From TrEMBL:
InterPro entries: DHH_sf, SSDNA_exonuclease_RecJ. This is DHH phosphoesterase. It comes from the Eukaryota. It comes from Tilletiopsis washingtonensis. Residues 442-475 are annotated as: Disordered.
Length: 475
């Protein structure tokens, strides 16, 4: 982090070299971005003009061609992607494919100046994430990967960013009593007290973590004890903030930057939804009301089940991104399903109509959650594995999808992304129809002889009434 800050100051004689932050659009990603952004500003003294924030487009990902072009056009020398997934693919920019390699024996300022003389200066990219990363995968080519998915309990991206940044706020303060190694680490940092660090970062970590895991999350080791901060902020307030921060990305207006600025410019949890302190608060609340109305409207959609009973699928059509919320609601209500593992909601109306040059197929966005019925049975199904098990019923399905999407590997697809407990994806409508056939959605299950009713078992195997004793009379 220190190298980033020093190089940023020194690399360009005409002005600071830009640092580009790409936080995800939800409470976790936006909080992670605000934590890092605030640390660069207040601990390392990076000029505000040197930090740029880019929000990827609606339904897009950092790996898409349009987003890679936008990152290259920013001319940033440092790119940090937060909570956007860790999918395999080409570098975030062509220059980022050269990798993160850094010569620790050379001063950051000198190394930055030397690299600026290259025909194509190196771009260093960092991924901070907690989404599923399969064994052997490394994410975008050349990126430094920091992913918590393999370490239980899995820290959210905001909590992971907090763990990186929080110690830096007080590192300079402890420099006077630290050894030489600590002094070198703390060189150039602006000193902050523990209470200042707590006030600046802890509530943001709460908002991000509770955004993904709920306000009832347990702050037990190895996680930091943020329970006292949660009590100060109150669970009710944090829950309201999470709902409001998540609303703009679910609305067709997609005003994600207002949600981000609401966090970045706040001085505490109480400011975020206060119209007097936050000029964006009214817009957040309006978006939240619109989203709530859409959730209420589509929550009554009836699900259809897969032939094997492991999947319940609801299909809706709305430009609002409410399919994850619908899946969450139904996942907790279908408690009597004996084989149910996951509840999915497909939104066929979320994406805009594509250009005719793209074949005219509107993509289907779908999202799923582990069914409470499965947890009640003591099971812990992986939705990622479940989706792949259905896809494997057609040996060419994923390869055909790769060809359709123009990617060279299935791990680059927007399919079965996310987490074990919450997964989903995006695919063209024709492939979605093909996938629902693989799942057997709406098909009657095959009869199970072992599960026949007592009456049927009785008629199938009648008891013998003609016994030997019936031929004799008692005298």
């Amino acid at each position: 982090m220190a190298a980033v800050a020093k190089a940023c100051h020194a690399a360009d004689p005409a002005g600071p070299s830009p640092i580009l932050l790409l936080p995800d659009k939800d409470a976790d990603g936006l909080s992670a971005g605000a934590i890092l952004h605030r640390t660069l500003l207040r601990v390392y003294g990076v000029p505000d003009a040197a930090i740029r924030v880019h929000h990827v487009g609606r339904g897009a990902s950092p790996g898409s061609a349009a987003e890679r072009e936008a990152m290259a056009a920013s001319q940033a020398r440092w790119i940090v992607v937060l909570d956007q997934g860790s999918r395999h693919g080409p570098g975030l920019t062509v220059a980022a494919e050269r990798g993160w390699e850094w010569d620790d024996s050379e001063a950051p300022e000198e190394q930055a100046r030397r690299e600026m003389s290259d025909v194509e200066p190196r771009v260093r990219s960092l991924i901070i994430d907690h989404h599923h990363l399969a064994s052997g995968e490394v994410g975008p080519k050349g990126a430094l990967m920091l992913n918590a998915c393999a370490y239980e309990p899995v820290a959210t991206s905001a909590l992971l960013t907090w763990c990186i940044c929080r110690p830096l706020w007080t590192a300079a303060e402890s420099d006077a009593v630290a050894g030489p190694s600590q002094s070198q680490l703390a060189g150039g940092l602006v000193a902050h007290t523990e209470s200042e660090a707590q006030a600046a970062l802890d509530y943001l970590a709460l908002i991000g973590t509770c955004g993904d895991l709920g306000v009832q999350v347990k702050w037990a080791p190895p996680w930091p004890d943020l329970e006292p901060e949660l009590k100060r902020c109150t669970r009710k307030r944090i829950g309201e903030i999470v709902s409001a921060i998540n609303a703009p990305r679910r609305s067709p207006r997609f005003d994600v930057s207002s949600a981000y600025l609401s966090l970045l410019t706040s001085t505490g949890a109480a400011d975020v939804l206060d119209p007097q302190a936050n000029r964006h608060a009214a817009g957040l609340m309006e978006a939240r009301s619109e989203v709530a109305a859409q959730v209420a409207r589509f929550s009554h959609t009836a699900p259809k089940f897969s032939k094997d009973g492991r999947i319940a699928l609801l299909t809706i059509s709305t430009p609002y991104q409410v399919h994850p919320s619908i899946a969450t609601r139904w996942a907790g209500s279908l408690r009597g399903a004996k084989k149910l593992e996951g509840v999915f909601c497909a939104n066929v109306g979320y994406a805009a109509d594509p250009p005719a040059s793209d074949g005219g197929q509107r993509p289907v966005h779908f999202s799923g959650r582990v069914a409470k019925a499965a947890r009640d049975r003591g099971e812990d199904p992986s939705l990622i594995e479940l989706l792949h098990s259905y896809a494997s019923r057609d040996a060419t399905f994923l390869q055909d999808l790769c060809e359709e999407e123009g990617v060279d590997h299935t791990s680059a697809l927007s399919f079965a992304r996310g987490h074990r407990q919450a997964s989903g994806g995006i695919m063209p409508a024709s492939f979605w129809e093909r996938f629902t056939l693989l799942m057997g959605i709406g098909e009657r299950p095959s009869p199970d002889p072992s599960a026949s009713s007592p009456r049927k078992r009785s008629s199938a195997a009648p008891t013998q009434n003609n016994k030997l004793t019936s031929y004799f009379k008692r005298t």
